[in-house]
Write a structure and sequence with these properties.
The structure is a single chain. The chain is α+β, with helices and mostly antiparallel strands. It has 2 domains: about 45 residues, no CATH class; about 140 residues, tt1808, chain A. The strands form 4 sheets. It has a 6-stranded mixed beta sheet, sandwiched between helices. The radius of gyration is 17 Å and the shape is globular. It starts with a helix and ends in a 6-residue tail after the last helix.
């Protein structure tokens, strides 16, 4: 694989002309860069993947969801809400790592060996869809997320218009239920609790 420094330089160079960048790399390369870069990078099928810096609209939606989840779970000491600097190890690939925009863990976080920032037992993940990564998020990441036995809910939020895709694990762990919401008047459930789509898009102007 390319030396770590070369990978970093290549990523920054390609982001000048591309919205979505994939760079062949080893797991070691990824882990040495993951928490050094000024934006999140992920690792899938022996490639580092990134879209670079997020838009202000993207970050506003992330903050809205973080606020909603913190209020939703209140003083529940058994549940923690984390931002995108906490990674998730994906079981299908020995070295597969995603960094969701918002991550909820129920119970004690179980960390990857020799790591204090990559967990293996997510409870809920939230991704704000971007034009550059939407296809990857829905065709690749969703499938891999479903392989995590602890994960109970995956939420995708559209930043181009009102739209939330909600995936819930059923009583049969191999069966997931999908609900889509397209208006601010819709009410969805997160961990069985009612959440207004209007609150997710609070102060958001398209």
């Amino acid at each position: 694989m390319i030396a770590t420094k070369s990978i970093k330089e290549t990523i920054l160079e390609r982001l000048e002309t591309n919205e979505f960048v994939c760079i062949p790399a080893s797991e070691e390369d990824y882990l040495s860069l993951a928490f050094e870069m000024p934006f999140k990078i992920e690792y899938h099928n022996n490639e580092i993947i990134t879209m670079g810096l997020s838009t202000p609209l993207h970050e506003a939606l992330v903050m809205n969801m973080g606020t909603i989840l913190n209020i939703l779970f209140g003083d529940n000491e058994d549940i923690m809400v984390y931002g995108s600097n906490v990674g998730i190890q994906i079981p299908k690939f020995e070295g597969g790592y995603y960094m969701p925009d918002v991550l909820v863990v129920k119970g004690e976080p179980i960390f990857k060996e020799n790591s204090t920032a990559i967990i293996t037992n997510p409870y809920i993940v939230v991704e704000v869809l971007s034009k550059a990564t939407e296809n990857f998020d829905l065709s690749e990441k969703l499938h891999e997320y479903k392989l995590l036995p602890s994960l109970q809910q995956v939420i995708f939020i559209n930043q181009k218009k009102v739209g939330v895709m909600n995936f819930l694990r059923s009583e049969n762990p191999d069966v997931w239920l999908n609900q889509d919401f397209y208006t601010e008047n819709d009410i969805m459930k997160i961990d069985g609790k009612a959440v207004s789509v209007k609150d997710i898009y609070k102060k958001i102007k398209f």
